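Holo model, adenosine-5'-diphosphate. Inputs:
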Amino acid sequence: MTIGVYPGTFDPITYGHLDIAKRASLLFDKLIIAVYENPGKKPLFSLQQRVELIEQAIIGWPNVQVEPFHGLAVDFVQKVGGKVMVRGLRVSSDFEREFEMALMNKKLAPDIELVCLMTSVQYQFLSSSLIKEVAMLGGCLEDLVSDHVAAALREKFSSNLAKLSTARVR
Ligand code: ADP
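Output:
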């Protein structure tokens, strides 16, 4: 059985991530979406919330599961018996970062291969950080994230959104 692992922060999961996960799930017997705690990035959503948002988004995807992890991604891949790490590429700056990480990961775990999938064109501008900014300012998230993710974002930013609507009324 070939297991692929798609690691990331997923703060929160977007349609860009889901597109990569769906396409990767067709390449492996099992795909694990591995959610990195990433305290350095100070995520908006807790690790548990990010896992739950993904679980809800992949209901009905038979060979995909979600797991949180701490520490090195390659250690997690080895722990679950995976052979391949999956990442998504949008623009050339993603490539430079992924290339650097891939070389380091190869040094740390030579047996693990990296598969990078190119973004689908409609998601090439989509990132979790941009989504958070749009959500904070009350923009429309349709076609960018699942409805339950949009609702979770609105809840996180509810006090800011209330202030914005008061300012608009004035
Ligand atoms: P990280 O902090 O590990 O980069 P992210 O959650 O930002 O975590 O992204 C996880 C992976 O998904 C990365 O490989 C990233 O390049 C990829 N990714 C993010 N958004 C998109 C998108 N819109 N299209 C394709 N790949 C994406």
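The chain has a mean pLDDT of 94. Residues 8-10, 16-17, 20, 87-88, 90, 94, 119, 123, 126-128 surround adenosine-5'-diphosphate (CB under 6 Å).
Archived with the compound record.
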